[in-house]
Fold each of these.
Amino acid sequence: MMPLSFIKKLQIFFTVCGLFVAQANGLQAQTKTFAPPTGDVILTISGKITATNVGDTAQFDREMLDAMDRVSFKTATPWYDDVMTFEGVPIKTVMDFVGAKGKALRVVALNDYVSEVPMQDVETTGVIFASAINGKPIGIRERGPIFIVYPYDSDIALQSQTYYGRSAWQVAHVIVE
């Protein structure tokens, strides 16, 4: 067997380098970025996401979330005496926007309370990141600025401790796992 010539070695080297560059460009194309928040950050999403705006996280201010397709529904909850109208962005909308690829969301509140929301809930229940109650923005003292709320009255199965426990308020960070 003849030893490879210097030229042949260079050709192999550049071919391999080209493959690495092509792979890196492919990975880069899978990640997208969007504008960072201009106001106070009220929600940070990290973990298995493909769209970021601050480092490897997706950060949102109230204006950014309010600009997404919002929904509202009336439902009774264990936290209020009356039926309330909750308004916000479906969590599915936000997860689709950030390219979430996990099986669950680990939700961390301002007081370090942690809950887990299965991605199946996000896909099937209509759960939202509520930012308004009865037409008024939710302040920190009222369980805001982000409150995870399921449409409890839409399905008797949602009226259980399982779903109430997933309904974190004062949500600050979501980790897609």
Note: The first strand starts at residue 32 and ends at 33.
Amino acid sequence: MSDTGIKGIRACVFDAYGTLFDYASAAARCRDVLGDQFDRLTTLWRDKQLQYTWLRVVQNRHADFWQVTGDALDYALETLAIGDRALRERLMDLYLTLDAFPEVPEMLKRLKKMGVKTAILSNGAPAMLKAAVDNAKIGGLLDAILSVEEVGVYKPHPKVYQLAVDRLAVGAKAILFLSSNAWDAHAASAFGMRVAWCNRYSQRPERLPGKPDCEIRSLAEVPELLAA
């Protein structure tokens, strides 16, 4: 993948969970109860959360991301033999106020100064996304917060990526899509967007249709990517 600049971009569209917001931060704040099970819970919760979105798409049985997140957490807690209902409620509440990655506010400010539109395109339900954005105090730096609930199907369905094109009134080739999820990055590329894969977690490339234009390790690199 090229590490050179990307030209002709009019909008940057960001995945939310794992890209702008640290999904591990909910369990991290419960280390006092979880102890050494913190990492296992984080991984299992996230993996099952994504699996449930994909399986619901295949079955044509959509439920919003809040329900899916709760279902995935219930599976993870039962698997780890954690029966603490108060902890379950605490974790769900914390998922509404996940920490933004530290570079996010300044990166968005720089993009706005460059005249680039900015938006979130996420599986998250509207109330979940609003809570996370408000907690991070970045609402004034975003032109749109787009939820899959507007189309009733989860990523990587093409309808989701089309939503950004339609709502921002920007062609796919003029959108830079950014995600830390490799499967999401490949799907956006296959749809026709330009893509920067923010490989925060040192993943291996997916063997899927599409190919990200470049790979970065932090969103702090995005303004330079557009200016190069």
Note: The chain has two domains: 11-22+100-227, 25-95.
Amino acid sequence: MELRTLTIENIEEIKSFFFDIFTKEPWNDDWSDINQLHAYIMDLIGNLNSLALGLFENETMVGLSMGSIKHWYSGTEYCIDEFCVKTEEQGRGIGTQFIKEIETFIKQRGIKQIFLQTERSVPAYRFYKKNGFFELEDHVSFVKEC
């Protein structure tokens, strides 16, 4: 397995990988608007502080992490917006290996922690807990329709 930094030059591969995972169970996200998909991926990978990483096995991407580097009073953190493993590869320990590779990568760059959000009702919740992530007791997420 090889961890690689991804850029805008990889956008078509990223979009295809992301689409294949998140339009299926358990997510069932509707990414049929390809312009919206393109804009979303650009939001994640097209900024100065973006950090997109791919895990490759024999030149095939099996894992994808997209987020940004944020400087915070307690240290610099990698805020993951999207983390996924190819559906047919799940259950082989690839996600756990990917997280460990990311941790090594960011530690080498002086980044102190990983921050992410997920829902309690999806398999990712148990995955993150199993891999040493803990819930922030005082953290609350809000949303307001406008």
Note: The two ends are 44 Å apart (CA to CA).
